[in-house]
């Protein structure tokens, strides 16, 4: 296996970097051990992250199999890094729905359409979630019913299942085959997390989607508690779709949450430079920024454009892969604001060329985002706030002007804003003046850049690179056939025992009995005394 | 600074070990930075641990100053590794008291003396704790009142204060001088730990001294809650001794706990191979086994003795530095049991030679414990259960027969027993048969050795050596002048906000108002309807 590693195509390149020597020395025990990993990914942007880990697993000599649906556009059937196991079912991931949703949301918010329209749209996304969970449930059913396929997976003797907890498919199969389970995860949907990750006091751990920080006023804490309750209700709506298939194949004792609690390892796609500090567990590994790497040289034409900016530098704008097109009025406002700047702008935009576009702005269909953010001339990143982009900006120390749209984007950008390393603008009400002012502020107030560069220094100052840390722990689980010794007993307890409710009731009962007995005794004594006095 | 490292006396030796290359590569950023560390250690066995870190800090080119009391026997005035700052006050650490306490405890328990005697002894140790906290309080007062000394400490521009939280002296001085604070810690005395380390549900996190594991029955959980309450009361007794001096020098807003909560880093002297898994915090670093190292060759006479054991192997017995002598009847029982064994025994014992001592047993005043435990012929470690010895046994994979006496010893050994890697015998009621049976069981049942070797494999399988991890994070705090970004907001909240008590009261109030209004409304409606019906 060491030989396998040494003769990998990019080995010479790797050996120039001292980091590889370190990794080589540290990871010697696992290099002599080539494992087999079964991956259940989630389509879309989550796949981008999973692929980074899969490629690294492959480069370290592990065999990877990826379970994909036949309609997947992101997860290809053939790859040099993995073998695909293609299922006839759909993935449940509907990219068109998501981009249409964002387009409609922008239209409704900008044109001030009725609250009813907004509510209808919210219902659409709720229905889409239910539809996705139904599809995933069908996938699990099809997979487990295919005895031939399941036997071949069993015979392949995988060392672990690596999956995204957005779908329970991987967790179900891991339990079914008795394999160690590793999650690659950004958020946990069930808020408080007591039973999933670690105790999460609602007083300083904001719920996902609340746009709250870890410093909350009384009414913000109240909101956080209410959102928690609502989320629990929403989750209760989604669960029944999995209940039947889980009980059928794994037995009546197994519920949805116990599958997640059984994970050997949680690889979290954040770190505490980006995320607010919070309680954690021994089996949670933080690998935020694992996808970041030093910038490579730009293609010559792009480099020429960047260099032409002189001392003013360059602004990079991208709203992620989902949002290539924006409403025409909005693009005109953005283009007009850019046209006023002395900086050069590189804007990933796939729609029609806005009429107000200045000479300083280059529209591109795709950009080498990491290489651009790592370029010394880049002064500002205008971003929608996807986790990947934000982590890359932290890694390269580039301040952010954030235009969040949906999902975790407002929450991600709030974390940058709270550290003074960026500013958020409401894209729904923004015009060219607001946008221009925002750009000016982040460019000209040196605190934004200084704060982001401080985050960058903190993020980079780790004993090991985040990707190496993630791989170390995945291989640890393979070497030791799990990591049960890192899992707390909380996972095996009913909620009333976990929260000591039974003990408290018992103690209250004892106190009550002592009180009642004492009162009865004193009363009795008093009555006797009174009777005695009366008799006297 | 790199040059400084390269020309250290033992550099050549170091360079033979690949681990040093790894450390050198990883720690490059800190090798070019020599920091200044002010250490407030605790005397006795805690100093043994602190010294390991001090020596490593020194070997990496940092300057270390150690604050000691003039009566300290452990912490020497002169050392090649640190400069001493000697105070005229006592350390509060009374070694004689502790060994006398253990001797009396053994006598009382073995001779079946009255419960009253036992209670008196417990009170003695409580009084000793109070006396120690008074001495520490005086030390802080003397130190802060010595303006000349404080000015010289200020002028020395230390980068951080490293201390043991058994005494708040280091934490007070760190706050007084505005320096980053790092703790080197084994246990936290305040049980639940919500406000000190991390949320610690009493349902599966046993209180120190309870001899409970993380798997508790209802009545064990009840006991755990009661012990928590008692500990809180005990702590409340000790606190007033510090209150006056803290308020006088740091201001009325600062209380005892807030000093601890302000720590930048907690270096815990355990890991989750030894300790039961539990919630933790981003600024808690686990360095269990940091003092362990590969065994060196034994002195020739000891090696000859060990080799003379043939295939039977060797048993190593030590009850720690505090307990060199045991009651005569007990030593006779132990010696007689050893005499029956085919193994050779090396016993650290400083008392008179027992009459029943066999030819196979070697009494020694001192032993190279780590080198003996790492010797391939060593089959069993008979130990009192101090954290250091237990960690060394885990590191070398030697099963333990435990004879716990006081402090954390029963808890430490319980962790080994719970993993099936050792067995505990009650030293207070033990005779030669019980002892002999215990030895036979751990020697002949292969599960003990297999389980301990599994723990050893898990413990050794880390991305970095625990001592390197500890040093990385100490130097991280120096480089970034603290680690405030790893400290949660919980530390700044009053208890009622932290536990959302105010929010819950508010929500209950709202629910109550809605209920009352609804009831009043319905009542009003009903009355009106009845009146109307009556009128009709």
Automatic annotation (TrEMBL), chains A, B:
Name of the protein this chain belongs to? Uncharacterized protein
Could you tell me where this protein is found in the cell? Membrane
Q: Check the record and name the CDD domains matching this protein.
A: GT1_Gtf-like
InterPro entries per UniProt = UDP-glycosyltransferase, UDP_glucos_trans, UDP_glycos_trans_CS
One cellular component (GO) term of this entry: membrane
Record flagged with keyword Protein transport: no
What molecular function terms (GO) are annotated for this protein? Answer: UDP-glycosyltransferase activity
Name the species this protein comes from: Sphaeramia orbicularis
Q: Where does it mainly reside?
A: membrane
Q: Where are the transmembrane segments?
A: 503-526
PROSITE patterns noted in UniProt = UDPGT
What family, per the record?
Answer: Belongs to the UDP-glycosyltransferase family.
What does the UniProt keyword field contain? Glycosyltransferase, Membrane, Transferase, Transmembrane, Transmembrane helix
